[in-house]
Fold these 2 entries.
Entry 1:
Amino acid sequence: MEKFVYFWGKVADFWKRAPKGPLMVLILLFAAGIFADFLTFGHDPEIGDPRQRLLPPFWYDGGMTKYPLGTDTMGRDILTRLIYGSRVSLVVAFAAVILSSVIGTILGILAGYFGGWVDQVIMRFTDSWLSIPTVMFGILLAVIVGPGVFNIVIIMGLVFWTRYARVTRGETLSLKTREFVQLAIVAGCSKFRIMRKHILPNVLNNVITLASMQIGVVVVVEATLTFLGVGVPPPKPAWGLMLSEGRGGLLAGYWWLIMFPGVAIAMLVMSFNLIGDWLRLYLDPHYRNIEA
Amino acid sequence: MTSKGEVNYLLQTRGLKVYFPLKAGIIRDRVIGWIKALDDVDITLRRSQVVGLVGESGSGKTTLGKALLLLEKATGGEILYEGKNVYAFNKEEIKAYRRNVKTVFQDPFASLSPRFRIKEIIGEPLEVGAGMNKKEVEERAAEVLGMVGLDPGLMKVFPHELSGGQRQRVAIARAISTNSKVIILDEPTSALDVSVRLQIVHLLMELQNRLQLSYLLIGHDLAMVAYMSTDIAVMYLGKIVEFAETKELLRNTVHPYTQALISAALPDHPRDKKERTILAEEIASPLNIPPGCRFHPRCIQRKATCAEREPLLAPVGENHLVACHLDGQKAASSSI
Amino acid sequence: MNKDEKPLLQVVGLTTYFFSFRGERIVKAVDNVSFAVRKGERLVIIGESGCGKSTVALSLLRVLPPSAKIVAGEILFEGEDLLKKTPKEMARIRGKQLSMILQDTMLSLDPVFSIGNQIGETLERHTNLRGEALRGRIKQLLLDVRIPDPERRLKQFPHQMSGGMRQRIVGAIALSCEPKLLIADEATTNLDVTIQLQYLNLLKEIQKKTGVTLLFITHNLGIVAELCENVIVMYAGKIVERSPVMEIFDDPGHPYTKALLQAAFGLQDLSKRKPIPGEPPNLANLPPGCSFHPRCPYGKERCRQEEPIEISLNPTRSVKCWYPVTIGSQNIPMPKIEDAGNFKNLMG
């Protein structure tokens, strides 16, 4: 019972202090993704009406309120694609970040706690992996395993785990020498118990902060790969795809094809970055002490 | 070490050495030197005895504590618990040893896991070492919290909600929870407020009396160590240089280093400002131990032999051991 | 020391608060603190953690963290109010007139600069010494703080030196421009006992040579007994007693001082030691009336309700307590509000 009250107390406190702007944007995008089916008035994101292709947004001559932000080359409603696309972007981003943070954190803790040759092996592996340029690596992997949402999640996960490993290894090294870990050893805890119960909870703060900053990066890289044709395959709605398909139309004056997905990506990434920045401050115990 | 006939020591070290290798090199680490943190130390602890260990930085007292807790591996020598070699213990015996030999560290803030509640902190050695279930842990935790003067209701709070003194009490409760016989106290009050220190000292002494605990009290504050200990060992650069019962040590101080320590103690009252033996030079580093007697570069009474031969611990009185070439003459007793 | 001479430092009504992120919680770290330091004096502010003594030091030099603000008071250094100085003027005063040494040398010294560099930095800022003259002065400073072989030390780095030596380097930096006042905040807490003694003696010598005024901040009664002439005791952000050192040890006036003396360790009278019950108070949530009353063995009804005013026991001593515990205290009549100004003669 007390744990319940304590938890909700923490949630309320978080809510009170979080920056409302970015949070609102994120909630909006999340809601859009979840409730996509209800928000799109029957438009299908993948099949369009070719007779209505390349309509401008509704406040222009020739635009229709039925297609508020216009239509693309295949007559698909931009707004609908945007909303469904948020689902894809968010799912990929979160799944990829979770995957990479899990892999990276486990390896980092193992390397930091065991030290010795385990550390050496894992760290050399991490270093070499890190030295491969991100986007190129993504392209390489995509070419090998082929396109698809699931595949791209795996690819992103594999590309990005290294940062978590470095961060958690450093944290583990410093935590290892702290008195409460030494006392756990004196109490008779096994190495794995210590790693699980004493080290892991204390590195989570850093991991969460890093993850929230990384989401923005993942979104952009995914969009890049999709834009280049090796990410999410058409006709699925994805913001990167909308950018690549709409690219040709820019010179012809069909600016809405890339403007809206571009803005959407920018807003998503910026909101995540701002929240990530704030989270870093919020989770820092020093900051907490000023209030606590 | 004491010559009281056949005595069964609870905990004992024989020739204990802990050396830390200094590595250098780019590709492969070569060992270029050794930090001799502990160099051939013999110490004994009986049931219900409080042995104080004083020394300054580099003396090795903390390393001795860690070695006894099996947090540092000895490079040589042995540790005997109830007469048996600890390094030859199997898993079960090590578990039993860990149940019986506990510690309280200096820093009450860092000693408690920040994300655990007090119940879990106290419960950890019980769960892991004694295999208790949740209910038994809760009962025992309430019991020991009461014994250290805390409200058992504090079981549910997190460490950051407690004050320094309270946290240290939790650390003590944790140490006695498994019915341990030996507690290594590593500067238990140095990080506490002055007004709280004596409270904790009294608590420790009360518990010692009640539970017949043996303490190895490590400290740099000679006054506090003298208050709590029956016997005191003075360490310098990894070796014990003097060992005696507390009263004897203060009344008939023999080793020049002990004299310096006592005389360096700040006065209780401005009127007590006294003549001091101010030592020349810094403490040598354990990396670069002077030849012969380790203390000779700082000793004002040194002779030629002091730079050549290392003195061994030898009795100079009843229950009084000193490692010094001058121990033949009774050096001036301290002004206590 | 001419009693009629104007004091070197006169602090009047200093009040410093720490504000939480949105100003909801206010920690009253220093509350209406007034004291004076005479030229050449050795004054100590003694108290436990959280009593505000370090905050006083930081306030004097105006190097408080961003969450703290000096909300009231004056800091008159040689007659001029430091709180009215611009940041540029303060930068000129810090290091040159007013200097400070801190407890943690690893934090005070920059690990990536050589010793010579760090001592030189202060000198370069405040003097015109350069080149060979600068080096000569640095070497002289090292010798003054009893560091042998200064030529070699110039090029060394902090991590290559022992704690005692680092503390002396920090001292050298602080004294390099011959300040008039040196504040030492727990300067010896991390040092070994034998090194601590060397260091205190060094400070005494330096004072004899240069006449610098010393303001110590510590919780260690031993340092007070060894080194200081006048004592100010702080508790919960307020000054609770002031006295010359001999009198305060012989006959403490405030119950807290008395309890502190009894609870401290010394090699004598080990059996007469008595602990103080309870813990130091939370500065964001002080009890009403006297801040010490929950732990005070002599506390009475008035202590619970009204905060005591400072009353003077004699021309050199004062106590902030309704019922001082000095031996002759029954001779002090119940203080009236008009008596509140009686301690002004201690302020120079």
Note: Residues 71 and 146 of chain B are 29 Å apart (CA to CA).
Entry 2:
Amino acid sequence: MTSLKVVLAGVEMENPTMLASGIMGETGGSLLAMAKGGAGALVTKSIGSVPRQGHKNPTLVELEYGYMNAMGLPNPGIEAFGDEMYEAAKAGVPIVGSVFGSSAEEFAILARRMQEYGAEAVELNLSCPHAKGYGMEMGVDPDVVANIIKEVKQAVVIPVFAKLTPNTHKLIDVARAAEGAGVDAIVAINTLKAMKIDVDARQPVLSNRYGGLSGPAVRGVGVRCVYELYEALKIPVIGVGGIEDWRSALEYMMAGAVAVQIGSGVGRRGPQVFGDICAGISDYMNKNGIRDITQLVGVAHD
Amino acid sequence: MTERFMVTQTMVTIASRTEEADGVVTLRFDWDAPASPGQFIMVWIPGVDEVPMSLSYLGDRKGITVKNIGDATKALTSMQVGDRIIVRGPYGRGYHVPPGRILVVGGGTGMASLLPAMERISATDVHTAIGARNEKELLFEERSKKTSSNVRVSTDDGSKGFHGNAVQLAKEMMSETKYDMVLGCGPEKMLFFLHKLCLENGIPCQMSLERYMKCGGGLCGSCAIDGKRVCREGPVFSGDELKSMKEFGKQRRDECGGRLKL
């Protein structure tokens, strides 16, 4: 019998597939639907202090190998999100509360609320590439990131994950700073800052002009980042970026990811993408005589 | 279930413009994308907004029927022949109509989504109940007659046809005829009571729902109702699916994802 169980910074998961933040994570009902699809853990939509509409449409471009989006962090605000967390808890899988703020204090307050709502971990969005004053704008500076993490670590007892951006040459510096400040795991990568111009309209499609590229198009970048992070850090790494089948999930795990997150794959393959990936991994393990999935983590390294 | 991959955006030119009723305009354009009844498209008016619209005509010359209620629909209803819009899709799951005797119930602009279903059905007897607030807002009565052996109209103010709403009219029609399936599209309160009526009479039904929608492509979750994406698992849901929904007829969500009472 193969075991897909993983323990991620103390969070016990039945399998290593997690719903990535930003996809189907805004309502309790949609989180439940992703658990039904087989996800081992669920990361909520990034939640801020107050309700936020996000950017005006168009907010999505569909591409052959992925998506480009600029949703602009729409969310109902931390106060209202309690009802959604309460409902999502019925899924019986760990919920990771994703939050975004514009200061260390704001991150800390939001993280504490997520803990009160029953989140088993909190994920800090330090990487959204299309919301002014948030996300990536803070997440490319190692000192700023370290400061946020110290503040959040003092505010909560649950594990703290930092989701980082690949849109910097300083990814490793930022990750080391985060590790030094006490973060429990690194999530990599968020979307790549991108643009789509419609040649008929002669203008960028996204109302925000800039967006984030996701899906299989960015997988090679994500795998490379995880590989580098695994070599540079002692804390666990969670891989995300273009995973939509068991092969791409294993690619990340072999690069060093303890768990993987799936976002665009939900749109391209449907909510059952989680279960499909797990079935594929189990099959691979059976064929190769591997009993425990953790044996595969990082095997691509010398 | 294998879900669809790539959907590209296409610029199309308005080939015809028809005023259907007070503030309601049908725009037709040539676009050969395959589409089935009940599906919708995302319509981008550069510089204004991008909004979901049901297809009111299928085939190579497709159409949307727009009621002027906001910025995007105002821009669309003021468009003239030769103007251009950018579309992507079609998206979603439409109607699946079995053979037999069908009752179609449309309220407001709901008939726009239902007519393509009526026109694709063959060897089926179709009856239609069209509801409007008043005679001036009545939509698609003549077009319905081409596929329906029995078209009846209700108006809230009694200015034409049955004095009352579309559900009351449907109830009357159900007492006269035994239907195998009911198709509905319109305001959710109407659908809620129509669904109840179908349950009471033991008639299977399918209804097309609407929710605030951002991406349209099954990703963001802004249109979720009880965890189901209106843009992907919907917009058409079966009576059984509707029965299991706690939010149907009760709750929708605002642009931020906050809960609102219907």
Note: Chain B touches chain A at residues 1-3, 5-9, 11, 42, 44, 46-47, 49-51, 84, 86, 88, 214-222, 224-229, 232, 247, 253-259 (CB under 8 Å).
